[in-house]
Amino acid sequence: MDIENMEYNTTRNHLTMKEYGRHVQKMVEHILTIEDPERRQRNAHAVIELMGFLNPHLKNVEDFRHKLWDHLF
């Protein structure tokens, strides 16, 4: 990686939900740019699945899918 192309945390967007990480946040930011509603919804479902996989302890929480959608929004 070129030194010119390096990203530092101080120059990146604020990490909204640290438990999911920067990659999930970038996916969500990308979803917001998708104009086609069906494609946007499919991508949102994929990110919800990933969020559930990254935080299996949430499966013990009542209505965990609803909680994941709340986190996504």
Task: Quickly describe the structure.
The chain has 73 residues and is mostly helical.
Give a quick account of the main beta sheet: strands, pairing sense, barrel closure.
Answer: none
**Regions with pLDDT < 50 over 5+ consecutive residues?**
none
| N-to-C CA distance | 33 Å
In percent terms, what proportion of residues is strand?
under 5%
- The helix/strand series, from N terminus to C terminus, equals HHH
Shape: flat
- The overall pLDDT, averaged over residues, is 81
Total domain modules:
1
- In angstroms, what is the radius of gyration? 14 Å
Task: Give the tally of β-strands.
Answer: 0
Q: In which range does the helix fraction lie?
A: 40-55%
Structural class: mainly alpha
Total number of helices: 3
Helix and strand arrangement:
Blueprint: H1 21-31, H2 37-54, H3 64-72
Structure commentary:
Helix 1 packs antiparallel against helix 2 (37-54) and helix 2 packs across helix 3 (64-72). The chain has one domain (18-72). It is built from three helices and no strands. The chain has 73 residues and is mainly α. 52% of the residues lie in helices and 0% in strands.
Q: What attributes does this structure have?
A:
mainly alpha; 52% helix; 73 residues; flat; 3 helices
